[in-house]
Write a structure and sequence with these properties.
The structure is a homotetramer. The first copy, chain A, is α+β, with helices and mostly antiparallel strands. Chain A folds into three domains: 48 residues, no CATH class; 155 residues, Jelly Rolls (Sandwich), CATH 2.60.120.10; 132 residues, Sandwich (Jelly Rolls), CATH 2.60.120.10. Helix content of chain A is 19%, strand content 32%. Chain A is globular, with a radius of gyration of 23 Å. The interface between A and D is large, with 104 and 104 residues.
Chain lengths: 371, 371, 371, 371
């Protein structure tokens, strides 16, 4: 039951709260190493801080850089079986080079040339697409063709077969969000290949899922009961935009609805439960009026923001970035976030909040609301 | 602890399963009467049948008759404090003359002349309106003006102040549905008067509730969590109609969605839960293609159907009625129902199924699906 | 669509809130009667009172009277197929002679002579037994023999086959509680006969259900998930008594636990959910120290109390009864209840609160807590 | 937005599914590194295997080794503010030397000398203790003294102040289980110091929590509603043992209850919900008859087993260990587990299954049940 080359390595140090170094203590620590043991007293500062000290760091990525490298990948990297997707993921600088935007969340730019097919597969990871610009690709989810257009939020919840194909004359890029890091961490991943290309190459403007489910406050009687993930394959921009505009119009008329002055926000939901679209991912769209600033807010759990339109600044802790269309910012757990809009500013946000809330670990702190 | 005039009255009879009549038995029964007791053995046939034998009866009411009497009431009966509403309720012939469509459900025609106000009040009973024809009335729910138009389904869930006013030049009639009988039975009723007239007489085409909540798959971030009843004040006909049309178009294309061949149906839902709009009432809209017939179906729980458009026949047990726009049919618990469409037939349905399902008493039996 | 002999009967009266009587109004009312319609304005006072005005009345039954009549029934009324049970139910004086303790609840004394069998059947109604005195009967629930002893609370949730047999030399009487009136009202009743006598006549002290489920905070891994009703067939007096004694001991030591000074109470629960034992019935045991009095409390929903031990007084509204072992008192919805203990007083209580709570109609008002 | 020393490091390789290496591809990869990006196509094999391939390894630790090193720590390492606890944690050989038994679970031996106090603190991590041998320590949880004895399972759910003190003449060691790794991963940790020693040094045999909550199927009426974690502070061995013995006795009599032949198991539950004791941790006790073997079972999620009594063998994948009292074995996600009992064998098990189940990622596969 021992390991000759132990990964455990302990050092006796002379510090408050630590046992006094001595040859006997060193011998004890060697025993720990041999038996694959680590005492709490040397680790408690790291493991039990007074508030979350995530390893992930706040960071920003410029969409123009992502797009430039994705285009170049379009020249050099074929899409096909094996590599599966021409997707390029954000690697948080605090997470050792792994392709993880946060400990739980994957965020990537995916790029498909005219006429290309991304082959069909399925996996237990939950996925969405968010389209900052362009159109012309259909993602086919369990046989249902789903058009992708600017502003749309598109779902591929876990274990559904899906492939994409570009029917247009132009390349198309979009944001992929998944819970790959969380699934990898927890050891819950299953994966299966499907056909090399999608079977149904029709290009309807609306998916079958939308025709059944995307009617406000209505559900088909033929599909009762709660579902783990939302059955709505596509949340169209026209609806999201109208909902945000309505909140600001209500504010203009003196009525409730916005989350704070000048700040409208909607959450994408699972219409069978009213909850989040997928078990592990929350997704929202925010709109700030020009020249407004959000209160500074900390939340347990990590998030990724992407600018959909407009210009402004995003501050996380003591760092701040100017942002414009497509730019991405990662917000680790419990880091204070402030967003400032220079023009009217639309932002897409996704986070691991459903994990945090389902495990009753959610906490929020709001400070410094603007006067 | 005795009652000189007991409501209990027992008769010893000579029948299978009954004790042999005798002077001693008669004396025992007199003792039961005096002590306000009733034996199971005389009542078990009524109380414990092999399947539900409701007291309520299937029955149909013609909208033209209701409308004629409502118009006459418009001449003779003022609307105001005390009587509160010019509402005329269906009295199930099996329920002793009480204004109860079924043991749990109230269904009434309400009628408002041009310029009239129905005064503001609130009650714990849950209410809705369904509009078969006409427009011009606004119902103001907790201060939010809600336009009423043909095909709309409008909510006033329990304990919300509400009044109506007719801003048009024509009278307007509509269907009111409530859980008044159930609330009366269970002893849960609270009631309060508000002002004699609504405060906000504005006439917006959409309510504030709709602007916040009637966007498909979206919810305002400012209002998290589940609510007992739906926050959507109005489910507009244009959405309901589109959802039904989509189901039939999917069927035409060979895809799933309808409840049975030629039969589309949507349920009005609470977007914060995905469940029914109110704790005690389910509401649905059904569309049958011309010349189709539903399977015969029994359900535990009672329902009321109203024809919205088209013509056909409704059979309940061994009775059948021809129906057209506005006609109402009551279906008691476990009575077999078959609907036949002569033209395309749209029907509104409401029922007490949420009560039955929350108490785990739901059963459904479907027979004789059309070939 | 008309009925020649209408159950509806309306009278025009000259009263506030009512339309002025006239020949035209009388003609309108005849039209309502003919079409089976009832206006709200004549009924609103009854249907929409400012707070619940139940038809059921508070009333008390003496156990000695029940027992005397049950013994006499034991002489005159055989137990067997058809009558099924020698059960004699409380008939609330406000409910027209029906065997209903409250609008929702059935409460009866059941009596079985030595050597008798009550035949096996099942029904969708939920049932329990509570034993005020005696022992020697086993109720066999889905084949599992369950001993009945003083103080035990025994479950037969819906659709489980059950029969009873008396293995002792003495007759035995107990309290049956069911949701028969509610099931009858809602139209949810199904019933099936089983064998004429129970198959397993063994007399184990503990049922198999208890051996699997009646361990504190533990559940068998082989039976995961929530169940509609509790799987615990018998809640034994020794546990109930200990739990009540512990609460009073905690109070003596200055710790929380009792519901109010001198008043301990435990609720019987479904261990798979933590909620009530059955979908429609709540059951509790209360213990008051000698010379204490509860606060006066109103609750939406109706209840039945039975004295298990001790002596005191029960006041409901403006009526008060002295009570002792076995006496039963019915408390209609929203009637103020005060219980006074002369000796230490143990009371069993059951109510329809789960119905009220699941439909979000619950309200409680507590007044006049003792100084 | 760039990082001069990128943690990202990419290598172009010539392999199936990979783009053909070229200077242009190398240049692209350098661009990725500079912009903190990682392509999916180089990582998909690791991130999306066909079934879970956890980094954690199956491993066994001998209790005698743990105890020896804990005793030596008792000589050399004081317990007090700063280090907080004399706890020594299992470090999974696949997790880089971190004190994590699995990616989510912490498992440590804690050791307290006679007369010692572990100071009071609280943290959002959920904790339990399981006692393999000994007694004499009280853990005081939110002021409630809880005795610790062999076989007991003791809870300290998140954010409750707690300290321990040894009132006996002998040292005491026990197993601590927490969700420290998961909390660290997700960034949900909050921590606060309390007093240096517990305030209430009384030594009652039962805690107040038990007196309120540890009665089978009963709950105090004064504490309604669901709680995130179980309110039962101590699950006593006498109850666990009786429940296991009952299952085997039922099996002897031919009745259902065991999970498979010769294998009894109970789960510790939250009596307010029927679910797991804490949001992130499941805990169970298993008993195998002598000379039996479990079916081989894989589950998504990781677990730690500790032998409570008896002797046998534990196989995980292609490794097998003989085990006896106190020995611990870690089972990573989806690794096949088989337990063989030589004598009657009692095992304690805890796992992260509640996380997996709440996120709907649970899967189980059972093979090779013994003939």
């Amino acid at each position: 039951m021992t390991s000759t080359l132990s990964p455990v390595s302990l050092t006796a140090i002379d510090a408050p709260g630590q046992p006094t170094p001595s040859p006997e203590l060193e011998e004890l620590y060697r025993g720990f190493e041999q038996e694959l043991l680590v005492p709490l007293w040397t680790e408690i500062g790291d493991l039990m801080p007074s508030s979350p000290r995530p390893g992930a760091q706040a960071h920003a990525w410029r969409w123009q850089n992502l797009l430039r490298l994705a285009e170049r990948s379009g020249d050099l990297v074929p899409v096909g079986r094996g590599g599966e997707r021409r997707a390029i993921a954000l690697a948080n600088p605090g997470l050792g080079g792994a392709p993880f935007a946060t400990p739980t969340l994957w965020a990537a730019i995916q790029y498909l040339n005219p006429g290309e097919d991304a082959p069909v597969h399925r996996h237990t990871q939950h996925a969405f697409r968010f389209v900052v610009e362009g159109e012309g690709v259909w993602t086919v989810v369990d046989g249902d063709p789903v058009a992708m257009r600017r502003g749309d939020f598109l779902l591929t919840s876990g274990w559904r077969f899906h492939g994409h194909h570009n029917q247009s004359d132009a390349p198309m890029a979009w944001l992929d969000g998944l819970d790959i890091p969380f699934s990898h961490y927890l050891g819950t991943t299953f994966f299966e290949f499907g056909p090399d290309a999608v079977a149904d190459r029709s290009t309807p403007p609306r998916s079958r899922a939308e025709r059944l489910w995307a009617h406000p406050g209505l559900r088909p009687v033929s599909q009762p009961g709660p579902a783990d993930s939302s059955p709505i394959a596509a949340y169209r921009w026209e609806h999201t935009d109208a909902a945000l505009a309505d909140q600001l119009a209500l504010e203009d008329a003196g009525h409730a609805g916005v989350v704070e002055p000048g700040h409208a926000a909607v959450r994408f939901t699972n219409p069978t439960t009213g909850g989040d679209v997928m078990p592990t991912i929350r997704a929202e769209m925010h709109r700030l009026r020009a020249d407004t600033r959000t209160a500074t807010r900390r939340e347990v759990g990590s998030a990724v923001w992407q600018v959909f339109d407009g210009a402004g600044r995003v501050r996380v802790g003591d760092r701040e970035w100017p942002v414009e269309r497509g730019d991405l910012v990662v917000v680790p757990s419990w880091q204070p976030l402030t967003v400032t809009a220079e023009t009217e500013l639309d932002l897409f946000r996704f986070s691991d909040t459903p994990i945090v809330e389902r495990l009753h670990a959610d906490r929020v702190q709001v400070e410094g609301a603007p006067a």
